Each structure stands twice: as C-alpha cells, then as structure tokens.
Amino acid sequence: MFSTEATTLHLYGMYHDVLRDPHGTAIWDSGWRKNTIVVDCRRLLAGLTGPPLPDGTQTALVDHNPFTVPRASLQINYLTGTGSTVSGTPTNRIQIVAQLGPNVPTWPDANHPVSTLREFGLVGQLDSTTVLINYVRHLAIVKDPASTLVRTIWLVF
After folding, report:
1. Are strands 116-126 and 75-79 parallel, antiparallel or unpaired?
2. Residue of 80, 7, 76, 77 whose CA lies nearest to 46
3. Distances (CA, A) of 116 to 38, 63, 85, 104, 121
C-alpha cells in the first residue's frame, strides 16, 4: 500500500498579480492562485539545512531569454499564521514581492516581439548551480510600457 508523505501535503506556492496604470490604480487583478513547487525547491530547502545533495535534472523556463528581477529588487519576508502579517523571525511561510514598473521589462526586443508575460519562475542557487524552485504558466498579461505589475508569491512549507 502506498502512502503520501504528510509534509508534502502542505508544501505549495501561491501568487497574486496586480496590474496598475501610471496613477497606481489597479486595472487587473488575478486573485490568489496556487502554483507548483518543483523538486528543486525541496532540494534547495534541504541544501540549506543539511549536507550537499547530488545533482539532479534541472527544469528551466520555456522562455530561453527571460527577464530577471535582481535579488536586491525583491521584497522577501516571513509571514505568520495564514494571512499576510510579516514576522520578524523565520516561519514556514515566505512572501516574495516583485514589482515590474513602467518600461520593465524593456520588451519588445529581439527575443520578445511583444510585451506579453506568460510565465514566471523563482530561481535559486544550489551548490553554485542555478535551479528552478517555483514555476507558473499563466494567462497572458499584456503589460504596456506605462503599467506596473506587482507580483506577490507565497511559499508554504
């Protein structure tokens, strides 16, 4: 008989996208949606707390030339309970907020004929190897040069 490991039942990610016009007014809101925690997230978490793990197969974004938000531009906090209250100490819930302001990304370009966003991923380093931690393919978000996209991601483990 097979059993499901209880710890993986509660391991998931969530994201929330809000597209804002130049005045900050929300013009589109995706609502909160669950997303996929990929195997490298578990490896990354294990790597932070234990001995190095052997290399595995990497997963990558579909876009071979993705726009990357620098780590310094991300707002990362631990959360308490089930809501969005920020904790000053580590918890089992992490919130990551990325803001793509006007003219970000600078598409269209040679690799992207339109400025439509269709996927995102969280990427980390595990033993100097870039790994995909979290991944979502979503409905197309047409981001015009004047709008701002605020993407909030929750990781629960």
Report:
1. unpaired
2. 7
3. 24, 12, 32, 11, 15
Q: Which domain does 148 fall in, by range?
A: 10-156
What is the SS3 assignment for 8?
A: helix
- pLDDT, tens digit, 9 for 90 and up, residues 81-109: 888 899 988 888 889 999 999 999 999 99
- Is the Cβ–Cβ distance between 136 and 62 less than 8 Å? no
Which structure tokens are listed for 35?
Answer: 């997303």
- The tens digit of pLDDT for each residue in 57-72 reads 435 778 888 999 998 9
Is 1 among the domain residues? no
Nearest to residue 94, comparing CAs of 15, 4, 25? 15
- Nearest Cα neighbor of 156 from 98, 96, 99 is 96
- Gap between the Cα atoms of 86 and 79, Å rounded: 5
- Asked if residue 2 belongs to a domain, the reply is no
Asked, for residue 102, whether it belongs to a domain, the answer is: yes
Number of domains the chain contains: 1
Is residue 4 assigned to a domain?
Answer: no
Residue listed under structure tokens 């071979």: 64
Beta-bridge partners for 106: none
